[in-house]
Structures are given as structure tokens and as C-alpha cells.
């Protein structure tokens, strides 16, 4: 989670909502990404999406069933859907997101009967630091 | 929808699940995409995602509030989330997807209180041809 938190801090420094994500395989980081929709002119460029896409490209396949995803914020519906499509084995996330989260809030995507793959989910890891990064970012913009 | 159906047929010919999508702005097609997760080694490479990303890149911004999306199949949770993030004005789709759809099935994403943007939705457009493409594709693989 340290690497994901560092990526989140880098996103904040670049003027993006501070969220970071890392894909781990066999105990090694194979992809790290920071949230970047503004910089990339890409509404889908959440940290999870970029990390999943980079890992899949690196491995040369569309499924990551032997990989885990660490992300500093509860994934939204788009990212939860991508995690299921990628067949991520374990999802570790930091701060809960009552507004846009889709794991323990809103659509609760992995609990839907139509969800075709559910990772193991571990929430609240590094949530204090992840939440502080977000609060500081939004406080500075007000 | 003709262009989206043609993109779906092209996906089938390339061995991908046949789904096609088009982004329209001011009455003109600005992006067309076919489903391509296998070819691109990218679990997020659904037709809607590729079309939205291409349109945003072309316009140089992360929001498509003046654009409509046409897609041959009911969007999944990932794509519905991306449509909301992109602020797509109107969503037109073909065949309903009782297994993976997230508009009228499963999470019914746009009806969730946490959904921050709801496009106008028009379903069932070209659904017969869209559904036939999918049925023929899966029948040929059995």
C-alpha cells in the first residue's frame, strides 16, 4: 500500500484527485498508477484502470487471475467492473468512498448476482493516510 | 446504430465478442470502436470504453457532455460507470444483456443514488440484429 499511497500523493501534486493503485504478482509490483483523467483527457483514467491495463499489457494477456490490486480508495462501479473483467484475485483498498464507491456503497457490485467474478476484498488498509490525502486535496481547492 | 452494428460485425470477424460503439457529436460520428480485449490484451477494452476514450482524446478533454453514445449491447457496470464519468448526454443501446448488463439488470447503475450523472437512456435500438450477431458468435464457438 506504500507504493499506492505514494502514487496518490503524486496525483495530488499534479492537480488530480489523489488516488493511487498497484498491481502485485508473485509478491512483486508489476504496475503502479496514479489517477490522471485530467492530464490524459480520459474520463476512464482512474488509478485502478491504468494499473490493470499496464499489468495486462506487460503480461500480454487480458486476465490477471494471479494478481492482486492495491488501491488507496474504494473502487467506483467502473473500476469494480474492470477488476471483475480482469479476474483480479484479491482487492485491498484504503479509504471507504460513500459518494462514489461501489464495493461497500451504492451498487455493491461484487454482491450482485450478475457479477461474474468476485475478488477477495480487504478494506481499510492505510485508510487514514489515504483519506487525509483526499481531504487535504479538496480542502485546498475550496 | 448502423456504424455500431458494423463495428460489432468486425469484432466477430476478429474473434472478439461482437459489440460495437459510436460517439456522436453535433450529428457527426467522432469515434467508432469494436470490442477488443483479446487483441489488445486489455480487460477494459470494451467497445464503449474505446469509443469514449477516443472521443475524449480527440476533443482534448475528459468530459463529453455534448456527446451521445450508441452501442449494440446494454453496457456493463464498468462501461456504465465510464459513461457517467464522461457525462455522456444520451445513451442508445441495442440488445439487453441479462447476464452482464448494468442499466436495466444487476446493479442498475444509473438508478443508484450514488450515481453522479445519468444520461437519457434509449434501449432496444437495432436489438434484433445486435442480438443475432451475439447469438451467431457464441453458437459458432460451441
UniProtKB/TrEMBL annotation, chains A, B:
Residues 1-104 form the CMP/dCMP-type deaminase domain. InterPro entries: APOBEC/CMP_deaminase_Zn-bd, CMP_dCMP_dom, Cytidine_deaminase-like, tRNA_aden_deaminase. GO terms for biological process: tRNA wobble adenosine to inosine editing. Its EC number is 3.5.4.33. Its cofactor is Zn(2+). Keywords: Hydrolase, Metal-binding, tRNA processing, Zinc. Signal peptide: none annotated. Zn(2+) binds at residues 46, 76, 79. The active site is at 48 (proton donor). GO terms for molecular function: tRNA-specific adenosine-34 deaminase activity; zinc ion binding. Belongs to the cytidine and deoxycytidylate deaminase family. ADAT2 subfamily. PANTHER family: CYTOSINE DEAMINASE FAMILY MEMBER (PTHR11079), TRNA-SPECIFIC ADENOSINE DEAMINASE (PTHR11079:SF202). Catalyzes the deamination of adenosine to inosine at the wobble position 34 of tRNA(Arg2). This is tRNA-specific adenosine deaminase. The lineage of its organism: Bacteria, Pseudomonadati, Pseudomonadota, Alphaproteobacteria, Sphingomonadales.
Amino acid at each position: 500500500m506504500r507504493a499506492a499511497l505514494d502514487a496518490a500523493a503524486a496525483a495530488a501534486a499534479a492537480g488530480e484527485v489523489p488516488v493511487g493503485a498497484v498491481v502485485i504478482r508473485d509478491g512483486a509490483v508489476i504496475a503502479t498508477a496514479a489517477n490522471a483523467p485530467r492530464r490524459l483527457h480520459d474520463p476512464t483514467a482512474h488509478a485502478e484502470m491504468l494499473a490493470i491495463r499496464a499489468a495486462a499489457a506487460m503480461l500480454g494477456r487480458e486476465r490477471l487471475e494471479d494478481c492482486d490490486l492495491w488501491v488507496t480508495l474504494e473502487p467506483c462501479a467502473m473500476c469494480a467492473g474492470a477488476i471483475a473483467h480482469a479476474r483480479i484475485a484479491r482487492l485491498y483498498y484504503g479509504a471507504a468512498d460513500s459518494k462514489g464507491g461501489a464495493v461497500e456503497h451504492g451498487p455493491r457490485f461484487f454482491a450482485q448476482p450478475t457479477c461474474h467474478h468476485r475478488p477477495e476484498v480487504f478494506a481499510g488498509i492505510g485508510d487514514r493516510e489515504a483519506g487525509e490525502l483526499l481531504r487535504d486535496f479538496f480542502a485546498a481547492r475550496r
